[in-house]
Design brief:
By secondary structure, the protein is of the alpha+beta class. It is built from six helices and twelve strands. Helix 1 packs across helix 3 and helix 2 crosses helix 3. The radius of gyration is 22 Å and the shape is elongated.
């Protein structure tokens, strides 16, 4: 492995180094490959280890690298596309849905959810917690709020709690006719419970996608999904098949 010296540039040295390493990741490494240790990388690029660490931290933040305990720093897989269009016309839990149910409880919903669902504040709402895993890593966590009125045939005897209860709620929801949905996206910070599930530090940047599902002219369910901003990207229908790097060259297609 040769040595690459950085030229004098006006931008911060670690930022220029980040660009150089990013190009090396595309040409010299494969997904999942473990990078050389910091000493070897610092020697290759002719920089101090402190500068190298800044560049690696930025690449991790951008989702190009992953740091795994007991393994080291590896090349991250391509970002997972999150379709934020409303072209997909199906209930959560429908065939092909990759989300995994984790738990379900029935209780009064938060005030914001009560307003979104237009239900009484004391009405029980089923809260289904699900996670989305790709390449063996959790990339998103979801809270799906479903009023009791949306699943009137649900039997507490068949599925009293936990994962079984979550699956029963989702199964009953499929019996309703889905009229449509609306969706909103915002940048947020990971809360403590989401950060733990997503293996991130509290406050890490996340994408929050809120979806409201309608049937018979009223909201039947609300989903609040929190995606890791370092491993996910927003897509809009057919445009989600193309991923473009910062150098404006198309590197890969999904």
């Amino acid at each position: 492995m040769g040595t690459t010296q950085l030229e004098s540039v006006p931008e911060p040295k670690y930022w220029h180094l980040k660009t150089v390493i990013g190009e090396a990741l595309d040409s010299d490494f494969t997904v999942g490959e473990i990078l050389p240790n910091e000493r070897a990388l610092a020697a290759r690029f002719g920089v101090a280890r402190a500068t190298l660490r800044q560049a690696l931290e930025q690449l991790e933040l951008e989702g190009r690298l992953q740091r795994r305990r007991g393994v080291g720093t590896t090349v991250a897989p391509p970002r997972m596309g999150v379709d934020v269009s409303t072209s997909t016309h199906s209930w959560p839990g429908a065939p092909g849905d990759a989300w995994q149910p984790v738990d379900c409880r029935a209780a009064a919903a938060p005030a914001a959810v009560v307003r979104a669902l237009d239900v009484d504040g004391d009405e029980d709402v089923h809260t289904v917690r699900r996670i989305l895993v790709t390449h063996g890593q959790p990339v998103a966590a979801e809270l799906l709020y479903i009023p009791s009125g949306s699943v009137p045939e649900l039997s507490a005897i068949d599925a009293p709690s936990g994962v079984a209860r979550a699956r029963s709620v989702l199964r009953e929801l499929q019996h309703r006719l889905l009229d449509g949905q609306d969706r909103a996206v915002e940048l947020g910070s990971a809360r403590a419970d989401d950060a733990k599930e997503l293996d991130r530090l509290p406050g890490a940047p996340v994408l929050v996608v809120t979806t409201r599902y309608y049937t018979e002219g009223r909201a039947a369910a609300v989903s609040v999904a929190t995606y890791r901003a370092d491993t996910c990207r927003l897509t809009f229908g057919a445009s989600g098949d193309v991923e473009i790097r910062h150098d404006a060259q198309a590197r890969r297609a999904s």
